[in-house]
Amino acid sequence: xxxxxxxxxxxxxATPRPDDGRTSPQLLELVRQSxxxxxxxxxxxxxxRLLGPLxxxxxxxxxSALGLLDPRLLTGPDAVAGTAWTLIxxxxxxxxxxxxxxxxxxxxxxxxxxxxxxxxxxGLSRLGESLVDGTxxxxxxxxxxxxxxxxxxxxxxxEEFKVTIIALGxxxxxxxxxxxxxxxxxxxxxxxxxxxxLSRWQYIRSVLxxxxxPGFFVGFRxxxxxxxxxxxxxxxxxxxxxIGYMMSQAQLYAQSDIILVGLVVYGAFGFVSDxxxxxxxxxxxxxxxxxxx
Length: 293
Known about the structure:
single chain, mainly alpha, 12 helices
């Protein structure tokens, strides 16, 4: 049987074409129903995460304007903004912000590098897992703040002590999530790497690192916020600079507006740093298709 005869005997199902570029009402109804029944979240609009904080500020300002708040205990946002502008103008806020940023960045960098290295060591071999994972689980059960008396005996109360506390607070979430990402790699990918004859370094670069990146970014987001939380504590211990020191001094003189300025700065640090990590995560993991992407 020839191709031509097959063509003649086979019925051709014609697809309907819209006349003059118009679509039928049935087709429009199907499109509407598919949109109504679409599962998952829609894309967020730019700046949508600021909606919640903006509502809080509006309610706070309204309560202050109506006299529902005692200004000696909780001043309004307008007074806080005026105090912040005064601290910016005389350079006080910039000095304390610079000191806090340097401590947080150094502690975050040290804790991140240490956590990633330990997670790879524990995830690559059973010996590394035996040596590292048990120790890290014990460290996980011990609060970082419980180590402050011992670290003061070892390091004193200088900058080394403060950076070490921040690094230890960052270490655990980085290790836990990166280690989980390393050990959750599909065994089929490992078998494929072995069949291709990849070396240890090629396996780490091509299989292990891409597979562990999602877990690392989860831990990194937690660690970034954790670094600011640890910073608040260490800057109240014999510090002479930093946002925490500024807030402690304001507490002695019942200056609630300065305390609130410090809280706003800490909150802004956390919000901006988390947004930067999320942006970096979307860029690095652009190959993933998730609800957050």
